[in-house]
Automatic annotation (TrEMBL):
Ranges where the JmjC domain occurs: 96-224
Protein name listed in UniProt: Cupin domain-containing protein
Single Gene Ontology MF annotation: metal ion binding
Known cofactor(s): Fe(2+)
SMART domains: JmjC
PROSITE patterns from the UniProt entry: JMJC (PS51184)
Alphabetical keyword list: Dioxygenase, Iron, Metal-binding, Oxidoreductase
InterPro entries: JmjC_dom (IPR003347), NO66-like (IPR039994), ROXA-like_wH (IPR046799)
Top-level lineage group: Bacteria
Length: 387
């Protein structure tokens, strides 16, 4: 299924994606939250899970923010209203949350960043703000009013004082109340302000949007790794000039041509996206590589073990090249023959890998090596792992 209600994928991409907001009523009929409020609060007690609580009228001033992990007693001291708990990357820890994201497969899977779940009491909000990325806001429980405002940017005035970026000015253009199963899509830089009407949960599906600087740095890293020392600045077409100290437009055009020749390589740019977009969101939580001997033991019992599954934190992508297929995971690259296209497509397009399905895919020696590498790095796992 997709979650666009009566909108077709073609209509959504043509008319709304990165263009303008759209409210989709009953996008997910009968939706039930994956976690109760107390279970979500339980996640915020964990050291490795990123969480925040925003209190609109805190002891230290408006829009007070507290970062987890929280002691259990912290929740007992919260006010009766106007606070919000936000738990980041729930899909990294709850398999069912990772599977929920499969309903957004009409968009490139490597673009999805994470699923954030927020629980708010009556009046709870994180204030008027904007994001630099696309987001789907799925109402999971209760009601939340969403106010939509102006297009914002780096120069938009921000309130002084709060440790979160609250817009100083909010120019409301639309207002809706969302019920369970309703969903609001917002392109980047659209001001929005959500306010809970009673206790509620909202699921935020956010997308990766690397900055120009991040992409340039990644491209530079790729160029440096594959650079040819013979490719240098040249000026065989020099003509006489009045001043020997001047850098002319012709000089900078030669430099531009040299840099363009380095960057205008489709395979290199695919590597930039593939590596950058599959990097771990939380590298410090990446599982340690298993010992080679463990692979041999696991293979010996393959037919008796539970089905394989993509690690919840993992992001996979691939690209086709004249020489075959390139597969990306955890910021790494594997070069495979064309014969492994079916294998990498299967790995990228699914979260679960039943043994019989995986065994039925013909793959090369390099493809078998890929499975081994992914398993040893715990980017795929079976029920016998401690994932």
């Amino acid at each position: 299924m997709h979650v666009l209600g009566e909108l077709s994928v073609e209509e959504f991409l043509r008319d709304y994606w990165q263009k303008k907001p759209v409210l989709i009523r009953n996008a997910w009929p009968g939706f039930q939250p994956l976690l109760a409020a107390d279970e979500l609060a339980g996640l915020s007690l964990e050291e490795e899970i990123e969480s925040r609580i925003v209190i609109e009228n805190g002891e230290t001033g408006p829009w007070e923010i507290h970062k987890g992990p929280f002691p259990e007693e912290f929740f007992q001291d919260l006010p009766e209203n106007k606070w919000t708990l936000l738990v980041q990357a729930v899909d990294h820890w709850i398999p069912e949350a990772a599977d929920l994201l499969e309903n957004f497969r009409f968009l490139p899977r490597w673009r999805i960043d994470d699923l954030m779940i927020s629980f708010a009491v009556d009046g709870g909000s994180v204030g008027p703000h904007y994001d630099q990325y696309d987001v789907f806001l799925l109402q999971a429980e209760g009601q939340r009013e969403w106010r939509i405002g102006q297009i914002c940017g780096e120069t938009s005035p921000i309130l002084d004082g709060p440790k979160i970026r609250i817009l100083k000015d909010f120019e409301e253009t639309d207002r809706w109340v969302l019920n369970p199963g309703d969903m609001l899509y917002l392109p980047p830089q659209v001001a929005h302000w959500g306010i809970a009407q009673g206790n509620c949960q909202t699921y935020s599906i956010g997308f990766r949007a690397p900055s120009q600087a991040e992409l340039a740095q990644s491209a530079l890293d790729q160029i440096l790794a594959t650079s040819n020392e013979d490719m240098r600045y040249t000026d065989a077409d020099l003509t006489p000039r009045a001043s020997s100290g001047e850098i002319t437009a012709e000089d900078t055009n030669r430099l531009l041509a040299l840099l363009n020749s380095a960057i205008q390589q489709p395979e290199l740019l695919a590597d930039v996206l593939g590596k950058l977009m599959t990097e771990a969101k939380y590298p410090e939580h990446q599982a340690e590589r298993l010992e080679d001997e463990e692979w041999d033991e696991w293979r010996a019992g393959f037919r008796r073990l539970p089905d394989l599954r993509k690690a919840e934190q993992a992001r996979f992508a691939y690209t086709r090249t004249p020489a075959g297929v390139r597969f990306y995971a955890l910021g790494q690259q594997w070069n495979l023959p064309e014969d492994d296209l079916a294998l990498v497509t299967y790995l990228c397009d699914n979260n679960s890998y039943p043994r019989k399905e995986l065994a039925a895919i013909d793959c090369s020696e390099e493809g078998s090596g890929l499975i081994r590498d992914l398993w040893l790095q715990q980017l795929i796992y079976s029920g016998d792992n401690d994932e």
